[in-house]
Predict the 3D structure of the following.
Amino acid sequence: MKKYFTPLLFLIPVGILSYSYSLTSFLLLAVIALCLTALLVVGIAKIFRPSLDQKWMRLPLIITTICALGVLVGLLRPLDPAVVNAGDASQKLAYAYETDQADRMTVGAYLSLFEDSMAERDSIRLMQVTQLYQDKQISLPIDKFYAAFVFHHSKKSELYEIAQKLAGEAAAVSELKDNYVVQWLAKATYDRWLVSLGKPEKYGTQDKFSISVE
């Protein structure tokens, strides 16, 4: 099972969704940004020194091209099935959580290129997790966290209510007290539920966009 590191890298007031972004993709985008900055600096320097060797521009261009191809591969890579039907409830919930996060780690999701596909996959996960919840198969704290994460990507107030209940119960157990993502989700789901009811949020999580690196 994949593990997601919990440190919050930065906060930008541009939305209400949280994303976990893969370290590889994050580094590729960072390298591209650095190379473009280098190209800008070299371009300005060349204005004042026309004789500046072209190799100072070739290297950043080559690196940028290679990294851009890496990002393109990430954009086009096929997604795993949204859910699995084999295994026990814990395995199904863990897998649903992993694909929920993996879907949002693609460059296409980051650029909002596949919103319809994302909505369909979220719906598939919701159906499975809802059935497990109705069958009372979600009892372990970590399973409640996984289920809450899927529920909080729904569009219905009643599902947000379930998400905040499960996330709160998961966050209350001693073994998850120091887990940043679990604690954050307990607050975020509560805020999202309040906002869906037309009430002001309590923890101020819904006007933030957070990125954590895997």
Observations:
- The beta strands are 11-12, 18-21, 209-213.
- The radius of gyration is 21 Å.
